[in-house]
Fold:
Amino acid sequence: MLKDDVLKLIYHGEDYISGETVSRKLGVSRAAVNSAVKALREEGYEIISSTNKGYLLTKCPDVLTKGSVSVHLPETVSRNVHVFESVDSTNNVLKDMARSGAPSGTVVIADHQTGGKGRRGRSFESPKGVGIYLSYLFKPESGFDKISNLTSWTAVAVSDAVYNAYEADTQIKWVNDVLMNRKKICGILTEVTVEAESGLIDNCIIGIGINVNESSFPEDLSQIATSISIENGGKNFDRSLLAAELIKALGDIAYRWPDDEYYLNRYRQCNVTTGSKIVAYPQLAENSQGRSGTAVAINDDFTLKVEFDDGSTEDLRSGEVSVRGLYGYT
Ligand code: BTN
Structure:
């Protein structure tokens, strides 16, 4: 869209940029540039226009649009980024695109989800205008054996993106909750489709929901969940910048997959699960009794080594653990 291209030019200009330069660079008329500037102002961009000097961008609103995310990305990446105001679930939208042949690296972002999906069939609250709901299509050439590591690599990518965007530190609770000050700011849901004939992986849809600018949470969630804003004194954060850093970090995963020691080292560095008392819940039994023990290590394959109170030791691959000291477990 023309307004996105105009935004890219005026965003990166350090000084006024003339209307003539914009129209020449984009190969469109001055009138078309004027209407694009008008559309950007309607979105909340503050753009000064001076008869002799041209345009100067002085303030950006906190919107999530194709243009606001793309200003932070090279064109080769941003051409595969699709941003929507509202969808049921970004994972569902991307799954449909993948079926129609979308390439690896395709991204779907929404400002709002009406049917956001969480793990174990739960729903994921996705209010408008405050969070990032993003799905990334990854088509690995490797087989199934390492794919369970992908979700841990993604937690590292989220931690890196938050740091690169805002210089803020996060922690990781096994297996892939990303926390700030010991409360959850991000959930990850990875959905994989497999080609029936070959048994090879077709598509991995990596879905990430980040609480960025929420100012409060319902009573039942407030022990567990927080937002980056709440943990930083109510400051408002630029969601487009974080979305772009996330896309870059996910691109790094696709490039470095399946073997790179960095992800295991960084995962261990951010991990807040080991050394704590835990209760482990097996994968499929939602209301099952948990087993108490102590998390002792993150193994090289990202499994969690647990010494249970009955004296047995197990390496957990999946399922959920409650960790003492987190989410109200005392
Ligand atoms: C969880 O913690 O239970 C996982 C939550 C994953 C939510 C994200 S938001 C973007 C993507 N689309 C969805 O419907 N879910 C994931």
About this structure: The pocket of biotin is lined by residues 89-91, 113, 116-119, 122, 124, 133-135, 187-189, 207-209 (CB under 6 Å). Residues 66-270 form a domain with the BirA Bifunctional Protein; domain 2 fold (CATH 3.30.930.10). The chain has a mean pLDDT of 94.
